[in-house]
Structure formats: structure tokens, C-alpha cells
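Input chain follows. Return C-alpha cells only.
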Amino acid sequence: MTAIAVGIKDCLCDGLSSCDRPVCWCCVVNEGEVATADWCACDCKTPCCKETEPKDLAAHLPPLEGVPAAGAAQEDPEPAWQGMAWVRTASQQLIPQGSSRTNVVTASGGMCGGGGLWRVTFNFGVLRCARGTSKDGRPVPCEPREQDAFVALADAEIMRWVVGCCPALKPFPVQAAQWTPLPRQGACAGGVMAVTVDLKPPTDTTGCPVPERYC
């Protein structure tokens, strides 16, 4: 489980970097639906950008069908690192094989014939500073809100690549994958991908899970 989570993290971080969209902070976490936006930074120099203006991300967007190309980026000796990414294990569910009463898994393993599998859902997402944030309570114009949407959709493209191409997920059957936008956290916005895979533990000749040490 840990190896898969770390593998997804590596694919996500490398994918963002290779598309000129690196983040300041990329980590495996054990938190709620979304990691706390304490590293949603605009420039990696401060832990939060709620009181500062975010950099122009338009020049760093990968080409999107139907979206006008961004203007030429200004020369910058360092990449415009911005935002944070994370991976977490959202749930683990035992799926017994078959429906017979003899497939009940017990502590002793005496009635485990048939084994089963663990259905595990991983979440991974990206949060970045958002332009479409009202500072005085007034409605936000269309352009900055659209820019936030394009930034999130560009990150979603990379997350879709992780689902289809990440070596950490390739050995396992993918049951479902779904990207959704995240509610704002202060001046930060983004999206999260949920991917559910089936992990079948090794079994002995009777179909029972092979005993393993807990630690």
C-alpha cells in the first residue's frame, strides 16, 4: 500500500514538473478529503499566499483544445513553482470472493476459503493560488475565474496521465477513476482525482491469505 502511494506521488510530482507546472510541496498524507492548504504558496518563499498576488500562470499552461494560446512567458531564471500536491489512501475495503457463508474471513483464518481482495481508493490532487478571489466581498469578474478553471483543468490532464500511465498503478485492475473540483480553501483552489484499484493478496493452496508479520 505504501509503495503504491509513494509511486503515485512520484508520478504526480514528475508529471507536473515535466509539464513546467512544478509545485512547492508534494507529499503523501493521512488527512481528510484534501490536504490542508498550508503550502499553497505562490513562490515557495512563504507557506501561504492569502495576502499576496499570485504569479501569472497563463504562460505555464499546457496547450488546451479550444483555449487560446497564452502569451510568451517572461524570462525567469527559476521555474514558477507554485502550489502543492498530495496523495492519500482514502479507503480500504475487503471484498470476499463469492457469496458463500464459507467465505467469511476470521481472525484464525479457519473459514477463509476463497480469500478475496482489498479494494483501495487513493486520492491525489493539486491546490494552487487562485486569482478569482474577492478581497472586498464584490463579485469576481469572469476572466480571473476562467483562468482558475484553466489552471485546474491543466492539472487534471496530468492527473489523468497518472491514472493511465503510472507504473505504480499498472499492475492492478482499476475499478474507477474520477476527477472533481475542490471547494476553495482561502485563496487556494484546485481539484482531486480518486482512483480505485483491486489488490489481491497472495494465497496458499486452500485459498487462504498467506500469513504475514504485522510489522
